Amino acid sequence: RAALPGLALALLCLLRAGAEVPVQPDFSAEKFAEIWYVTATASNCSIFLKMKDGMKSSMAIISFTSEGDLALKLDKCQKFELLFQQSGQAGHYIGTSAQEKRDLLVMETNHSHYAVLHEAQHSKTEPSTVLQFLTREQDVSPQLLQKFMELIPTMGLTEDMLAVLPKLGECPKGTGCL
């Protein structure tokens, strides 16, 4: 019983933290579409944490359906596609499956060089947060990478949850790259 008020407070803090994730104010789906490189990722997901040291960059191909939904295709050694429905707010998209709900927000982008995506995965077994740094080119400026790294603690993540991904290259046989 004594733990219930603390648990309720913790849940309120989580909800409040989720509500404070900013979305790019002048987000343009038309300018955002096309090819991006996943340059760095930070996450508290246990699967990511186990695999992060062996990961390589991937190419993210972003397109939008006629209904305004966001289609994300990751292409490298492992290929998969995700579809996120628009939420009614530009730059905020929702993905759902039987196991989880995902909120994808474009936190920051200049549309032509970089983007920061925030994804909250609301899973019954393991809720998690993913922060991704996307760039139009594989080479990234140290200043932009530093700016991304400064966002990590503001999203409840720590630096040890960060993977700065090597450039695209050949995948070693029998391994996966995300």
TrEMBL record:
The keyword Repeat does not apply. SUPFAM superfamilies: Lipocalins. GO terms for molecular function: small molecule binding. Coiled coil: none annotated. Keywords: Signal. InterPro entries: Calycin (IPR012674), Lipocalin (IPR002345), Lipocln_cytosolic_FA-bd_dom (IPR000566). This is LCN15 protein.
